[in-house]
Amino acid sequence: MKVVIELDTEELVRVSGPAKLHIVKGKVIVLGAILMPGDEVMVHGTRSYAVKCVDKCSIEVDIGDGASIERPQAKEEPLDSWISKVDELLDSGCRSFIVVGPVDAGKTSIAALIANRVIYRGGRVAIVDADVGQADIGPPACVSSATVDKYVFWLRELYAEKIRFIGSIVPQRFEKRIVGAVVDLVWEYRKEGIDHVVVDTDGWISGASALEYKAEMARYADIDAAICIGCEGILVDMFKSYFNALKCGAHLLASPKVKRTRDRDVRRLLRSEAYKRYLGQLHERIVELKTTPVLGTCLFSGRLFGADELKELTAILGVRVVAASETNDTINIVVEQYPRQQAIDELISKKAKHVYVRVVGDEVNVLAGIIGPNGKEEAIGIVKEIDYTNMKMKIVTPYQGEIKAVILGVIKLSDDMVESGRVQKCVI
Ligand SMILES: Nc1ncnc2c1ncn2[C@@H]1O[C@H](COP(=O)(O)OP(=O)(O)OP(=O)(O)O)[C@@H](O)[C@H]1O
Ligand SMILES: [Mg+2]
């Protein structure tokens, strides 16, 4: 259904998708972007935005099922305060930003708004998406990034030009990898001459360790300003303690009072769509495990056992051991069937090391990162099989170049790209 809304200068409406806006007359601001007659904005079914008129406006809105157009109450809408704070920071020379805040506060919207303000001023900007659970630019379980050269309203409109594989959709226990990935990407953009960078983060903010990991990300990436959206109470003090030392300091912005939120099922569906985007046109690849490192595993991080040692383990455990390795303090074993606990206990006391047992097939459908010849992630893929006798791994991926290494994650994907399981420690 199409409706035309007429807005006076300074008037605004809140549009919840699915909807398409077509500017017919006047000048309109959406997420900091200045839109002119002929310009169009898609509002996805999971999103809502404030649409503000700057100069006598007429907007044609194509509204889909479940969409709505409302007039926010006075003080309900923070758009002006968002724009004035971001403009003030840009005016004072701040170029890089980290956006933090609780789940659904509006972090990703602020990240897009900052990029749009830089574009409005004629600058170049990159966005680094560090939210591994609700990745919008690249696939989930990755930190990814893209340069933005035209107004953006939802980060899914962008396509990842750089990916760093994390392997998990929750940041806990993976903070080091995420910090490393963000720092790496931000500096790559600076080397390419793009100084305006925005880092969008996950909504994990409760507890000191949550803020500490984001503060470290900001510090090592040499970020100028931190913005906390929707921070209230004790979080305000914690945010200031962690981020005030940045060159342009720590700044608070209000979250919109009324907005679209996404439940767990919608988030899962959004992740599934994002996996599909980066796992189209799959090719089957065979990875030679004797020569290609596999990272993120227990088995391949140690000294691999020879045939005689495997026989000894088979005798102790009473089930066929197909591969095993040891590190300083662990023995990692892959078996055909799970052995009796008593047999495992016997092995632990004999070797005086922790013993991790995995069963052949545990690796099937695990999400993996593919490292190319320059040592960086080129794509993601899904492990289909490990043949321990011939030491080969079958993996499907869109990537067709040389595979220098593979890094295994802790998530499994079903054939239709829905998350079907999570691994506690390492998958093999
Ligand atoms: N000014 C606004 N008025 C109403 N809704 C808004 C406004 N700005 C953003 N929203 C909506 O609020 C919701 C949450 O915004 P956003 O995705 O930016 O938050 P987030 O903090 O990044 O969430 P997440 O924790 O999932 O990453 C979205 O549906 C977005 O469209
Ligand atoms: Mg977000």
Work out the radius of gyration. Answer: 25 Å
CATH class of the largest domain: Alpha Beta
Strand content: 25-35%
Classify the secondary structure makeup into a structural class.
alpha+beta
Overall pLDDT confidence: 96
Ligand names: adenosine-5'-triphosphate, magnesium ion
Shape: elongated
User: Number of helical segments?
Assistant: 8
Low-confidence segments: none
- Give the helix level as a range of percent: 10-25%
How would you sum up the major sheet?
7 strands, antiparallel
The count of DSSP E runs of length 2 or more, i.e. the number of strands, is 25
CATH architecture of the largest domain: 3-Layer(aba) Sandwich
Describe the fold and architecture.
The chain is α+β, with helices and mostly antiparallel strands and 428 residues long. The chain has three domains: 2-68, Jelly Rolls; 79-276, Rossmann fold (3-Layer(aba) Sandwich), CATH 3.40.50; 279-428, no CATH class. Helix content is 24%, strand content 35%. The chain has helices spanning 79-91, 107-120, 175-191, 208-220, 234-243, 264-278, 307-317, 341-351; strands spanning 2-7, 12-16, 19-30, 33-35, 40-43, 48-63, 68-70, 96-100, 125-129, 142-148, 162-165, 196-200, 225-229, 250-253, 283-288, 294-295, 303-304, 321-326, 330-335, 354-359, 366-371, 377-387, 392-397, 405-413, 419-422. Strands 1, 2, 3, 4, 5, 6 and 7 form a seven-stranded antiparallel β-sheet that branches. It has a seven-stranded mixed β-sheet with strand order 11-10-9-12-8-13-14, with helices on both faces. Strands 15, 16, 21, 22, 23, 24 and 25 form a seven-stranded mixed β-sheet that branches. A hairpin with a 4-residue loop joins strand 22 (377-387) and strand 23 (392-397). The mean pLDDT is 96. Residues 107-108, 131, 134, 200 line the site of magnesium ion.
